[in-house]
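Got a spare moment? Tell me how you read both lines of this record:
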Amino acid sequence: MMEKNYLASLVYLFTVILFSSCGSKSPNSPARSAVSSLITVDGVVVHPQPLENVVRSSGTVLASESVDLVAEAAGRIEKIYFREGARVKKGDLLVKINDDDLQAQLKKTELQIKLAEEQEKRQRQLFEISGISQEQYDIAVNQVNTLKADRDNLIAMIRKREIRAPFDGRIGLRYVSEGSYVSSTTRIASMQKIDLLKVDFSIPEKYASQVEVGDVVQFKSEETKQQFTGRLYAIEPKIDPATRTLQLRAIVENKNERILPGSYVQIELKLRKIPNALLVPTQAIIPVLRGQTLFVRKNGVAVSVPVKTGIRTASLVQITEGISAGDTVLTTGLMQLRTGMKVNVKVK
């Protein structure tokens, strides 16, 4: 009898524990879990809009013409005719190197030519009356021509003892003095043409098909805060394989010489306008290992979508692939979002 009561007590205790464990879960827990998975985020609805296709880069200013003045022939400087920093005209004599020896040779050759011409004249008279042979007359003519060639050579050598301005421009600092001995490797001064400037810069290769000679280019000097407008006038016909960029050159007027060669400038190159671009805020883009993604709302849940980007502005990014007009792109709470999470979106 006592064993039966003991077994009945054990069954009753087991039944109580079983029902207690089954009733320990609150009937409201699934609701709380569902509520906890719903988060509120900001978002924007994507609409096509016009986009100014502006490529931003940086570049270096160059003189339209630039040269280091050096002597073609070695010698002692006899006279310097330019003033440092002065403007000069094309053809102006800048430096004269001593050429006394060449001038003496030239004078001697002139006298020899005069004598040979008189000799040729007499030989021609004799040849006309058959007093000499054709060969003898040809020797006299050749003597005249040879001496004239020697004279031309001397004149060319004398010209090499003069340094003249190759173009209109401004002379820089000089590095020699009168009386100095110079050779073909001695830098005498530099000369720049800066009323017209070149600006070299590069852009990513993806824009290579969109640039044309004549496109408007705007420059801004960070030092002077001055802005200039020029035009693209030359395009390198190949992509740099090391940087994957295309080298460009623009030209800009600088009549007041407010900007100097060597300056660093910020550049805006205006390309063709895009009439129906899809733009999203920059903070919506999430960089990943193999590209970029963003979150869109579809059927009330967040969905991660891989995208391809295009032009960037200060606050917006063009999306070229991955989304369509009318999509709602999520812009906040991105670190907490996962694909499939329910979202409540505040559209801005």
Observations:
- Residues 1-11, 13-36 have pLDDT under 50 and may be disordered.
- The radius of gyration is 43 Å.
